Every structure is written in C-alpha cells, then in structure tokens.
Amino acid sequence: MRIIIYTGKGGVGKTSIAAATAVKMAKQGKRTLILSTDAAHSLADSLDMRIGPEPVSNSENLWGQEVNSLRETEKNWGIVQGWLTALLDKAQLTDIATEEMLVFPGMEELFSLLQIKEHTQSGKYDVVVVDCAPTGETLRLLSYPNVLNWWLEKMFPNERRLIKLVRPVAKFINNVDLPSDDVLDSVEQLARSLEELQRIVLDPEMTSVRLVLNPEKMVLAEAKRSFTYLNLFGFNTDAVIVNRVLPNEAGEGFFAYWRDIQKKYEEEIIMNFQPLPILKAPMMPKEVIGLPVLEELADIVFKDQNPSTILYRGRTEKIREEDGGMVLELSIPFVEKSDLDLTQTGDELTVNAGAYKRKVILPRPLIGRQVTGAKFSEDRLLIRFGERNLAEGNEEQ
C-alpha cells in the first residue's frame, strides 16, 4: 500500500499534478484512488468527470473522491457536537456563530484526512493519492494525537469515573447534563482514529509527501515554511515538483522577463531543497483537463520513473534538544566547509554555500533563540541555538 500526499500553496496546480500522478499509476495497472480533501474541490474539473463524496470509478483502475467535510464532521463529531449544542442551549447561547464554534479550527480538515485511514484499512487500493488542502498546515494538525493520546491514557480513566460519579448530583444541583458514555466513547474513538492515522502518514515506507510550487518568490517562501514543518513533525518529503515552468521559447518577447525570473528561482529551489529530487512540470500548451492531457503531463514530469516508488528516504532537516539548547541539522551536500556562511535575521536563517543561498524559516521551537555555534560534518550542517530570548528576535549573528 502506498500513500502519496500532494500539498502546496493555493493556485500552484497541485490538483493537476496529483491527478496526473494517479492517472499514470492507474495506467500501470495499480488500483489507484485520487482523493481530494480540499474544501474548494477542483479534482472533478481536472479529471473532467463527475465524482462524489464516495469513491467513483472513472476508468480502469482509477477512482476519484471529493471528501465532504461536513459529512465527515457529522460522522466523527456529531455526538459530541450534539451534547455541546444542548449545553449551550441551556445557557441561551443559540445563535449561528456559537454553533459554528463547536467545530474547532482545523477539525474539518482532520476529519477529511481520516478517509486515508479508512481506505488504507479497506485493502481496496494499491495507491491512494491525496490532493491535500492548500497548505502544509493541515499536516501539522496530525501532531494533535500525541496530546490526545496522553490525555486519554493519563487523565481519561479518572475523569470518566469522576463524571459517572458526579453526573446525577451535577444535574440535580445545576441542571447540567455532563457528557454521557456515548459522548465519551465518541471522543475516545476519535482520538484512537487520529492516532492510527498519524501512524500511517508518518510511516516512511508507506507514505510520502510531495511539495508542489511555482518558481515565484512568495510561493517559494511558503514552500520552505511548509517543508520545515513537514520535517519537524517527521513526514517523509520525497520530491519537489516545480510546476508551470516556462519553456525556453519564452526567452524572447513578452515572456522574456518572466523566464529570467523563473530561472533565478529555479536555482534557489535547487539550493533550498537538495538532495530531494526536483521534478519539473512545464507550462502546458493546452488546458490540463481530462485523462489524456493528465497522462501526457505525468510522462513529462516522471519520465521513466515510477511515480509510486519512494523517490527519497530520509529527513533533510531535523531539530533536537541537546545540553539545554536546541540543534537544527540541515543536509547540505556537495559543498565544502570553507564555502559556508551563516546569518540569522529574526526567524529566518540564511545559509550561504558558495554562489547559492538557502533560506530556512525557523519553526516555533527555535523562534526567539539565537545561533550560538555551528559545525559542518559529513554533508550535514549542525546549528546550535541558545536559550529563548524573545527580546532579541531581530538581531543578527
């Protein structure tokens, strides 16, 4: 079983790349499901076929699904939401805005991602390709099970016994309905499901994430931020797809300026994401709609590679605690120690390697910490950070 998750900033064309990947693998004889968890679905438009909230067979070996987040929320959170609604109703808080608050930020995306777990356990497919919501932030939500699991194991049994004990008294005194066993069971089941989902998506032999971006400044900045967090939370990113690259013919006339800009950012992409495989998808001469065009696009992007294989193993960025400080470990192959130079400005780290620059957006655990030292060994740059000092957020090292 293989799971390939595509993510990237909105508008970069990740749906087209994900759909092209699925079409190519289906042509290779693999039972392939292309799954969209993006609330603003465009997968059906890309495939040029009607699909729905359940998998629909589009052609031989190919199924498509656009997850209905509202339905998944009701399925996974409906019992709890019903209890919360009744509670707020007694407090005379019944306006629409209050009811919307009963689904916490990010939960709908998480409920949609639970479809990955269901399809993995069903055994119906060889490959599941996920067209994820337009940011890597959704995947960060999958760190929640760690907290939920701790709460369930350490607190839940005692809290559950306490609730059962005081439920009759609380209702008599305050006219408050404490959560029933159904509500508590629902919370526990959700936590267990999220924990299983986390196990699946963090398994580097099963799941990989692929970043889709365009060679543009703002898109590249967002991709670097997402990449840092994917590494921080342990996801295996196995490729970067640079989409909508202008052809060399665009080097003259109206598009000449834009072709030069793209070349500049293509070099920066190589420096920032190596040693990951960096695949290129050209600006196609026609709309990327329908199976024939998607298959053509996949052939260009992957060439002779099998898109279902794991294209890279290993994390290119790691963070760990060490002797009271924090260490950021970066993979920077093919350079000499004498070529490296390091600068910190606020929450951004710039690594100069010869003629190239690599900018790293620092994740929260490193924000407010200043670089205290660095060493380079075996193609890896180890950067040590001292204690947190938020007052020094914009000083340079």
TrEMBL record:
The keyword Zinc does not apply. Keywords: Arsenical resistance, ATP-binding, Nucleotide-binding, Translocase. It catalyses: arsenite(in) + ATP + H2O = arsenite(out) + ADP + phosphate + H(+). Residues 1-301 form the ArsA/GET3 Anion-transporting ATPase-like domain. It comes from the Bacteria. One of its GO terms (molecular function) is ATPase-coupled arsenite transmembrane transporter activity. Signal peptide: none annotated. Anion-transporting ATPase. Catalyzes the extrusion of arsenite. Its EC number is 7.3.2.7. Pfam families: ArsA_ATPase, ArsA_HSP20. NCBIfam families: GET3_arsA_TRC40. This is arsenite-transporting ATPase. Belongs to the arsA ATPase family. Residues 323-385 form the ArsA HSP20-like domain. PANTHER family: ARSENICAL PUMP-DRIVING ATPASE ARSENITE-TRANSLOCATING ATPASE (PTHR10803), ATPASE GET3 (PTHR10803:SF3). Coiled coil: none annotated. InterPro entries: ArsA/GET3_ATPase-like, ArsA_HSP20-like, ATPase_ArsA/GET3, HSP20-like_chaperone, P-loop_NTPase.
